Amino acid sequence: MSYWLIIVAMALITFSVRYLLLVRSIPVRIGPRLQRLLTYSAPAVLTALWVPIVFFPEDQLAISTTNPYLLGALVAIGLACTRLSTLLVVGLSIGFFVTLQLWVLR
Questions:
Q1: 65: helix, strand or coil
Q2: Domain boundaries, the chain
């Protein structure tokens, strides 16, 4: 199957789902139980994104002090716990990660 066909099909599916939920002429009511369950979707998706990157950077488990992804994540968690602004946490943790990658763990 062509990559372009897959991309177009995925775009149509994504658009149609969003259109059906956001258009005002189609009444869609989400119950309180589904609303409560949907509050967990963002943390679940974000966890599914960062866990493989942090713990499996080279397709095998890497829990060590030489793993810059793990060290950067720990710094980001520590900074976030200090209640700094999100932009500052992201900037400082990226700076720490780049410093590790370029100069410390070479």
A1: coil
A2: 32-104
Confidence (pLDDT) at 21 = 77
C-alpha of 103 from chain center: 27
The C-alpha angle 91, 87, 46, rounded to 5 degrees, equals 90
Q: CB–CB of 79/93 below 8 Å?
A: yes
pTM: 0.68
54-63 long-range contacts, CB within 8 A, separation 24+: none
Asked if residues 71 and 58 have their Cβ atoms less than 8 Å apart, the reply is no
Count other C-beta atoms under 10 Å from residue 106's C-beta. Answer: 6
